[in-house]
Every structure is written in C-alpha cells, then in structure tokens.
Amino acid sequence: MRQTIRTMRQDAWTSEDDALLAEIVLRHIREGSTQLAGFNEASRKLGRTAAACGFRWNACVRKQQKNIIEIAKEERKDRKAERVQAQLEGGDVDHPTATLMSWAQVLRFLRQEKNTAAEWASRWRSAERQCNEWKQRFLELEKEHRRLNEEHRSLRQEFDSISDDYRVLVQIVDRARKATLKNEDSPLSADGFLYRIDENGNLERLLANPDLEQAE
C-alpha cells in the first residue's frame, strides 16, 4: 500500500487525529463508499497505516461516533434513493446503478424511435401523394402533347396542300400572262376568250365579241 513520504507515526492518537479519522470515514459512509476506502484515505493524511486507522476506528472512534454513524447511514440511503429516482427519470447513465435503470432507458429510447418512425411515415405519405399528383400531371401533359402533335400534323398537311394549290395557280397565271403578252397583236386565245392583266396584276378574262355574249 502506497504511503506518504513522511515516516509512519508510532506515537499515540490525539483528539485531532480521531476527529480527522471520523470525518473521513463518515464521509465515505454517507457517499456510499466503504470504510476500508476511508481507512486508506485517512492513512495518507494521518501518516499511519490503513490497518492502524482501522484498528483505531473499531477500538475507539466508532463507539464515540455511534449516533453520527447511524445518521450517516440514513443519509447514504436517502442519497441512494435519490440516485435511483434520477435513473428512473433518465439521470446519469454512468452511475453504478445505471444498469438497474436500463429498462427505463430502453423504454424511453423506444418511445423516441416510435415518434421518429411516425414522423418519417408522415413524410413518406406526403411524398407519395406529391408523387401521384405529379404522375397525374405528367399524364395530362402527355395527352395534351399528343393532341398538339396531331393538330400540328393536320395543319402541316393542310398547309402543304394549300402550298401545292398555290404553286399550281401561280403556274397557270404565269402561263396565261405569258400567253397574253405573246399575242398582243392577236389577243384572242384558243378558247375564244380575251385575257388581260388589270392594274392590280390580276388576270382578267374578257369575251372577244360582246355581241356574242348578249346573243347567248
């Protein structure tokens, strides 16, 4: 056992030594420690062996401090009860009695996990609803896209048809214009009509003989 640097005392115990020994041992009792631990601490402070401190305690000091020892034991019980209650309410898990409170801690942990799981389940349902809404929106847009594609295809076909008709018409007008310019001396065409271009550039068909039209 490790002792202090000074030589172990061999002289008689004084009242101050007894008081210090009693103070140390009683503190260990109140705090739930052992008397042996108190003897070891007293030996370092009094310069005596732990055995000498234990012998002095049992032979003399304990009898003098009998009532105080009982009070210290009651305080130890109260402190232990307080620590147990603290553990039940989620106190210090490093306390030696923490293993007795593990079920309370497990219950608290499970409750927290239940709340967390419920929160994530709520988030999942919300995300699922949003996913369904976006899926429905996608189907609607896809349907609208197909409709617009069909409409575009129809308009494209109509445009191509009108373009073809326009090109044919332009060709006819162009041939008629050339035929009119080519036969300025004899503007009567083979079908018996007279063609001319008005001031707006439009092709105008006239009868070669107005009397013939009236006769008809």
Automatic annotation (TrEMBL):
Keywords carried by this UniProt record: Coiled coil
Task: Offer one Pfam family short name for this entry.
Answer: Myb_DNA-bind_6
PANTHER family, alphabetically? PRESPORE SPECIFIC TRANSCRIPTIONAL ACTIVATOR RSFA, PRESPORE-SPECIFIC TRANSCRIPTIONAL REGULATOR RSFA-RELATED
Q: Does the keyword Coiled coil apply?
A: yes
Q: Which InterPro entries does the record associate with it?
A: RsfA-like
Q: Which NCBIfam families match?
A: DNA_bind_RsfA
Provide the coiled-coil residue spans.
Answer: 62-89, 124-165
Q: What is this protein called?
A: Prespore-specific regulator
Q: Which domain of life is it from?
A: Bacteria
